[in-house]
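Filed under: proteins

Residues; backbone shape codes:
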Amino acid sequence: MNILVLGATGRVGSQIVSFALHDRHHVTVLVRTPEKIKINNGNLTIIQGNVLNKEDIVQAMQGIDVVISALDTDSTSTLSESMPLIIEAMENEGINRIITVGTAGILQSRITPAILRYQSTESKRKSTRAAEEHHKVYDLLKLSKLEWTIVCPTYLPNGERLGKYRISKDFLPEGGTEISVQDTAEFAYKQISTNEYKNSRVGIAY
């Protein structure tokens, strides 16, 4: 399978790249700083570019079967500004499947199910800026023709890969407080081979 990973130099994205290469998939990454990619693998294609540049996105999409985005909010609007370009390029290239890594803040609140966690007292985060960015992406994907899954982890310590975690569609598993970067990456990566959570948000936690 030909997989495009966006956000490949981040904590979750770099782990996704490792999982995909381990399974002998061909992986393309679009990165601003290629020197940050420390992997030497014949199945890895590194494209230097920016997700905010339409031409770079179109180039990265050539021959791709599935897109995994682990783009971070990084205190900017890059996430929400790049998603329309990603969606347009995918639809033009006939690529249907995208998995993104979001945040538990955009899951439904268990206290007030009609609103999202970050909009309710359930969220303990003082700043809602990151969740607002992910909310924009969620709305854009809902309006698209793509088959999307948004993986929504809560607090993300580095930690080890346990391989066991709880999963809940549209909600955070009850009492869930954290999940490691490794397990989040593993779950997101596994979605390339299943449609179980197609067009859904998925809360994951220990």
